[in-house]
Amino acid sequence: MLPVAIDAMGGDHAPAAIVEGARRAAVEIGVPVVLVGRPEDLDPLRGDLEVVAASQVIGMDADPGSSVRTMKDSSLVRAAEAVRDGRASAMVSAGNTGATMASALLRLGRIKGVARPAIATPIPVPGSTPTVLLDAGANAECQPQWLVQFAQMGAIFSRERYGIAEPRVGLLSIGEEPTKGNPLVKETHALLAAAGALDRASARFVGNVEGRDIMTPEVDVVVTDGFTGNVALKTLEGGMRSLVTAVIEGLSTTDVADAALGALLPLYTTLDPDQTGGAMLLGVDGVCIISHGSSSATAVVNATRVASEMVQAGVVEHLRSAVASA
Amino acid sequence: MPAETHVERSPLDREQVFDLVRDRLADILEVEPSTINEGDSFTDDLDADSLALIELAEALEEELGERSVGFRIEDEDLEDIKTVRDAVDYVLARL
Q1: CA dist list (Å): B9 to A140, A268, B5, B12, B19
Q2: How open is the CA angle A15-A231-A136, to the nearest 5 degrees?
Q3: Is the peptide bond before A126 cis (omega within 30 degrees of 0)?
Q4: Residues of B known to be catalytic
Q5: Which residue of chain A comes nearest to B58, CA vs CA?
C-alpha cells in the first residue's frame, strides 16, 4: 500500500507529537507513512521515516481559502498533491481544518457528481457504534440536494467504517414531525423521504431526529448543514468534557475512587477524542482524514489507522457509485 | 520577452485561451464543453458559484503556470469576472 501522507506541521503539538504518532503508526499497526513538512524541523525527529518537503505552514488561525491559494508550498497542499499524484494513499492532518478541506478540495477535486464535500465526524455512543454526524462544519449554508448527498455519503462511511449493513439516517431538526424545522430541513425531508432516495447507499431514512438523539443507538447517521453540525459537535464535545471532569472530581475524593474510576475507564476511553480516529472529508477524490487540532500522538496513530482502513475498504469508490447520476 | 517569463511553447491565442477556460469549466461544472459560450454569465447562465470560480482559478494557474512562471489569478479579482469572456480577457492580459 502507498504510504499515508501525514501533515507533520499541523496541530497544536506539531511537529513532535505528530511525528511520534506517525512513527508509532508505522511500527505498531504496520501502516506505511510519509511525513510532509519542513525538513529542518523534521530531520531531528523522523528516524527512518521519509519526508516530503514543504517550506510553508498554514497557521491554525489563517484564512483557509486564501492561505491555500497563496501558500502553494505548504505542508497541507503538498500532502494533498501527494495523494493526487499517486505518491500517497491518503492524507491526515491535525492542522487548520478549513485549510485541510480547501487543500483536499482544490487538489484532489470533488468526486464526480458531488456538489459539496462534507466533514463526517464520529460521535461516540456508549455501548454502541458511533453516530456519524455530517456536515460537521464544511458548508455553513446548504441546499437541500447537498444534504441528500451528505446522507448518501454518510451512510457509505457508516457502513465501511463501522460495518453497519443498512445505516439508519436521520435528519437533524427541532422536532420529529416532518412539519418541524426551517425551510432547508423541510425541503430536505421531502427529498429524503422520497422512494429510493438512499437505495444507492443501502441506507434507510428514519425521519427527523433531535439533538438529544445523536448520542443514542437509535440512529447511525445524522445529517445537517455545516453550521448546525458544528454547533452540535462542539456542544457535545464541551458537554462530555465537563461531565467527565465533574465525575472524576466528584469520585476522586471518595473511598471508592480507585474502583469507581477503574470501572469507568472503558466509558472514558469511548468518549476520549483521541480514540475516534478523526473525521473524514467525504466527497473529495481521495481519503482525507481530519484530526482535531489538539491531537496527541495517539490521536495521530488512530487517524492514520482509519485512513489506511478507508483506503483498503475502497470507500472513495463506494462514494463514487452512491452519488453517481442516474 | 521578460527575463522572468519562461515560455516552453508559443504564446496562446485568444481561441486557445477560450478552449482552455471552457474545458476546465466544463470539468468543474460537469457539463459538455459545447454548452459553454464566451458570452455566458457564470451565475445566470452556467449556475457557477464562487467555489466553481476558485476551482477554475486553481486549474488555470496550474495549467498556465508552466507556460508563464508566476501566472496568478488574484482572489479579489474574481469578483469582477462575471462572464466567460471576462475570464478569457483576464488570462490573456496576464500571459
Answers
A1: 43, 62, 12, 8, 17
A2: 60
A3: no
A4: 49
A5: A106
Is A278 in a helix, a strand, or coil? coil
Confidence (pTM): 0.92
Put simply, whether A66 touches B (Cβ < 8 Å) is yes
Nearest CA in chain A to B26: A112
Residues of B in contact with A112 (CB under 8 A): 30
Q: Which fold has domain B14-94?
A: 1.10.1200
Tell me how far CA of residue A137 lies from CA of A133, A229, A234, A239, in angstroms.
10, 6, 10, 18
ipTM: 0.77
Among A127, A152, A142, A190, smallest CA distance to A324 is for A152
Q: Is B57 on the interface with A (CB under 8 A)?
A: yes
Check CB contact of A87 with chain B, cutoff 8 Å: no
Please say whether the structural domain A1-113+283-297 has been given the CATH code 1.10.10.10: no
Average pLDDT over residues A134-153: 96
DSSP reduced 3-state for A146: helix
What gap in Å lies between CA A133 and CA A227, rounded to an integer? 12
pLDDT of A326 reads: 38
Q: Domain spanning A115-275: which superfamily?
A: Isopropylmalate Dehydrogenase (3.40.718.10)
